[in-house]
Amino acid sequence: NPTTQGIHIRLNSNDRNAWVKIFNVLGEEVATRRISSAETHMNIERLKPGIYHVSIETDTQKMVRSLVKK
Question: Is it the case that residue 17 has pLDDT exceeding 90?
């Protein structure tokens, strides 16, 4: 972090279904992706430079991390 092209997402070994949502600082959802593998890459090249919040929600947990897009 910061990044220009994409983010790498790694789930716990027990979690295989997750929703990844990216929100801008206004709380608007700007990207969504459902993932079903332990590791994946999400391309964010089309997002404008700025600060975002990445929400990852599985059946067992939800986490939010900040992301800086250059």
Answer: no
Type of residue numbered 32: T
Task: State pLDDT tens for residues 20-66.
Answer: 999 999 999 999 999 988 899 999 999 999 999 999 999 888 999 99
CB 69 within 8 A of CB 1: no
Nearest to 70 by CA among 42, 49, 48, 47: 49
What is the Cα–Cα distance from 2 to 49, expressed in whole angstroms?
A: 10
DSSP character string of 1-52: --BSSEEEEE--TT---EEEEEEETTS-EEEEEEE-SSEEEEE-TTSPSEEE
Q: Which of 54, 51, 53 is nearest to 68 (CA)?
A: 51
The pTM of the full predicted model, rounded to 2 decimals, is 0.90
